[in-house]
Write a structure and sequence with these properties.
Blueprint: H1 3-17, E1 20-23, E2 39-42, H2 48-73, E3 77-84, E4 87-95, E5 101-104, H3 106-109, E6 112-118, E7 124-133, E8 138-143, E9 166-171, E10 179-197, E11 203-212, E12 224-226, E13 232-244, E14 250-260, H4 261-274, E15 280-281, E16 284-287, H5 292-298, E17 306-311, H6 316-319, E18 340-344, E19 347-348, H7 352-362, E20 368-375, E21 378-385, E22 387-388
Antiparallel strand pairs: 1-2, 3-4, 3-6, 4-5, 5-8, 6-7, 7-8, 9-10, 9-12, 10-11, 11-14, 12-13, 13-14, 15-22, 16-17, 17-18, 18-19, 18-20, 20-21
Helix pairs in contact: 1-2
Length: 390
């Protein structure tokens, strides 16, 4: 059915379902001496057939939207195959610019001695590694191909992303390149461990992570997460697995994670220009979310926030006078006496993602922030000058 025909049908059906009020103009024939306009109301009852027709038109329009989006965006999505000392791997990426830069995950190319990039057109080429970012799990590679093969994707604004909005993932799950899946944004502000360890042995946190139920599987890593306008709002990074295939590959459980595009917009230009990106650094390890029982055992007020479990010696947090919890024998698994961070620059901190997402998306080493903390049941403001991750 042609677009014009569908629109005409939809318009006529809407007119059938709505109440139409026809109001005579001042020059129309008067009904009495009060000169009031004559009002005629026409009501037509809706029928199941009418509603079915409208539903079918809406579904067809949604289908056409997804088809058009895929045809426009897929030329800018590539499959990446790697060869390394421990075998091969696969993933996805997307064209970042007309100079041939392609963005993917660090873990896709980790340990690779040879990189192959496959375009939807059938072109296959080798790629050169430009720079990596282990903190957010990002990598930039470059290909030397004709400009007509390069379709840079449009970058959106992940700050505008809402839970519940429809999103699309395109990648190469299990080596099936050009695969499109559809879902919704199921949460915002998640955190994941980065790929890089800190000097204390733990892993740095990666913030501003988008959670989605769009099917993401091995091979989707590095591919784009898109909104219905075809803008990239994230890069697919990981899944929460619920089992594995006979080959040992993790299987999608309906919970996938994507790096917010606003992180990429800050990091990738610097990677291309300088080869590295420095993230702001506090030097704090935070306790997982405290339960009500934990709060009662520690004598804390019933508040939302993140509990300071450990402070790295010589870090900006130590220099600012923040306090970490101790581990008294009476509270075997808990920490007592530490600060609880409840806000950063007057922005509420209910969980670690609120803190890390704000730092990674808005701050640089050398910037000053103000942390609102609870210490000994009293609120206090502490200024901290951020360092860079060692």
């Amino acid at each position: 059915m042609k677009r014009s025909t569908r629109l005409a049908l939809l318009s006529s059906l809407i007119l059938v379902l709505l109440t139409c009020q026809l109001v005579a103009s001042s020059s129309a024939q008067r009904t009495d001496s009060s000169s009031q306009a004559r009002v005629v109301t026409v009501v037509v009852q809706a029928t199941p057939a009418n509603l079915t027709a409208i539903t079918n038109v809406g579904m067809q329009q949604q289908q056409d939207l997804l088809v058009a989006l895929y045809e426009r965006v897929n030329p800018g999505v590539v499959a990446i195959q790697t060869v390394g000392r421990e075998g091969g791997g696969l993933g996805a990426g997307f064209v970042y610019d007309k100079e041939g830069h392609i963005v993917t995950n660090y873990h896709v190319i980790e340990g690779a001695t040879d990189l192959e990039v496959d375009f939807p057109s059938g072109l296959k080429t080798r790629a050169k590694l430009i720079a990596t970012d282990m903190d957010s799990d990002l990598a930039v590679v470059k290909v030397d191909v004709p400009s007509e093969e390069l379709y840079p994707l449009t970058l959106g604004d992940s700050d505008l992303v809402k839970v519940g909005q429809t999103v699309i993932a395109i990648g190469s799950p299990f080596g099936l390149s050009g695969t499109m899946t559809v879902g919704i944004v199921s949460a915002r502000g998640r955190t994941l461990d980065s790929v890089r360890q800190s000097p204390t042995g733990g892993y740095y946190a990666a913030g501003d992570i988008i959670q989605t139920d769009a099917a993401i599987n091995p091979g989707n890593s590095g591919g784009p997460l898109l909104n219905l306008s075809g803008e990239v709002i994230g890069i697919n990074r990981a899944i929460r697995t619920a089992g594995s295939t006979p080959q040992g590959d993790p299987v999608n459980s309906g919970i996938g994670f994507s790096i917010a595009i606003n992180i990429i917009k800050r990091v990738v230009p610097v990677l291309i220009e300088t080869g590295r990106y420095d993230y702001p650094y506090l030097g704090i390890s935070f306790h997982p979310e405290l339960t009500l029982l934990d709060q009662e055992a520690l004598g804390l007020p019933n508040i939302s926030g993140v509990y300071v479990a450990e402070i790295t010696p010589g870090s900006p947090a130590e220099e600012a006078g923040l306090t970490a919890g101790s581990r008294p024998s009476s509270l075997a698994g808990l920490l007592a006496g530490g600060d609880v961070v409840i806000a950063i620059d007057e922005r509420p901190v209910r969980e670690l993602g609120d803190l890390m997402g704000y730092l990674m998306s808005n701050k640089n080493p050398g910037d000053q922030i103000v942390l609102s903390i609870i210490r000994d049941n009293n609120r206090k403001e502490v200024s901290v000058t951020l360092g860079k991750r060692p």
